């Protein structure tokens, strides 16, 4: 719930669009862009919800770190991204119980690619706001019922 509140549209717009130069983009790996269509395709491939949530956590936390890498400490969005990192760290305690052998091979491979540093050639430019938009959309897909507490 805290993460959903922190990812409100107004906050994403202010911190990830208005405080960045026009058309500013962050270089990320292709696997670090997780869209709802990717989740739908994986669901149709009979990947479990737990594995999809595991994937979402790793991709989203990595996306926040990518955004944070380009920010100087005095940037107006620094504190916002720091708070997001803290929320993902807290969520990481829940996902630390999982091992990559506990999830489907396709998800384990994607998580390995997200955390690999040798995939420099597989980069794409993405707006910071788009990364967080995708994070929220996928989170709502995967946690729709639990988030309605």
TrEMBL record:
Highest taxon of the lineage = Eukaryota
Q: What Pfam families has UniProt attached to this entry?
A: IL34
A GO term from the CC aspect:
extracellular space
One function term, GO molecular function aspect: macrophage colony-stimulating factor receptor binding
What biological-process GO terms show up in the record?
positive regulation of cell population proliferation; positive regulation of macrophage differentiation; positive regulation of monocyte differentiation
Know the name of this protein? Answer: IL34 protein
Species of provenance: Fregata magnificens
């Amino acid at each position: 719930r805290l993460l959903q509140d922190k990812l409100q549209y107004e906050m994403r717009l202010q911190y990830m669009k208005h405080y960045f130069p026009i058309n500013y983009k962050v270089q990320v790996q292709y696997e670090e862009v997780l869209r709802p269509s990717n989740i739908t395709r994986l669901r149709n491939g009979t990947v479990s919800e737990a594995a999809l949530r595991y994937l979402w956590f790793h991709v989203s936390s990595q996306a926040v770190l990518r955004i944070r890498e380009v920010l100087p400490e005095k940037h107006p969005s620094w504190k916002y991204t720091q708070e997001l990192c803290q929320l993902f760290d807290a969520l990481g305690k829940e996902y630390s119980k999982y091992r990559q052998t506990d999830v489907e091979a396709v998800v384990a491979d994607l998580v390995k690619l997200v955390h690999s540093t040798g995939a420099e050639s597989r980069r794409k430019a993405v707006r910071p706001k788009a990364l967080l938009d995708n994070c929220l959309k996928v989170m709502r897909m995967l946690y729709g019922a639990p988030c309605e507490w």
